[in-house]
Design goal:
alpha+beta, four-stranded antiparallel β-sheet, 4 strands, about 15% strand
Length: about 180
């Protein structure tokens, strides 16, 4: 069996095992291995094959559940950065303005006092960002898990609702996640 020690692959297989079952996780692991030494082209091709599998075998809700668990980190450092602006602002609208005036890794758009857009101006995914071309929307659902974790920390609430509106690697101008609390 090919080596399967890449963190992206391990997170996805663990998520499949938790949410669908060990048999499916084992089959997936055997069929779609990814080594941590894989180059950027191999990672990109692996991501495309993974999406083909997910899109062919699972419904959108299940795909979102699996991919949300594949986030690369808990988002605490980003949450702390965001909190710096939220804690100083006297409104959500002011928070959005202050954040956008000082940060460039992401930007926010005010929608209402309990809804914002959280946007990335570029793709940050280590598996796909350096290879030209698009991927299935299924791949980008991991960013929902990332955004959910960030804003649960920011707003100290578990009832954060996140929706992927667009992503760069699916043809969008930005990665845009609607965040509601």
């Amino acid at each position: 069996m090919a080596k399967n020690d890449n963190a992206h692959s391990i997170r996805l297989i663990d998520s499949i095992r938790r949410n669908i079952g060990n048999d499916v996780g084992d089959e997936f692991e055997e069929r779609y291995p990814l080594s941590k030494s894989a180059n950027i082209e191999k990672k990109y091709e692996w991501a495309k094959h993974v999406c083909d599998y997910l899109d062919e075998h699972l419904d959108t809700e299940t795909i979102m559940t699996l991919r949300k668990e594949c986030r690369c980190n808990e988002g605490k450092s980003i949450a702390n950065k965001i909190l710096k602006y939220l804690n100083k602002a006297d409104s959500i609208e002011q928070f959005v303005k202050d954040f956008n005036a000082n940060e460039s890794f992401a930007f926010l758009e005010y929608i209402s006092d309990n809804k914002i857009l959280f946007c990335y101006p570029e793709c940050y995914c280590a598996c796909i960002k350096r290879v030209p071309g698009e991927v299935s929307r299924s791949w980008c659902y991991c960013t929902l898990g990332n955004a959910e974790g960030i804003f649960r920390e920011v707003f100290k609430r578990d009832d954060i609702k996140v929706t992927l509106l667009e992503s760069i690697k699916t043809g969008g101008d930005k990665c845009a996640i609607e965040v509601e609390w």
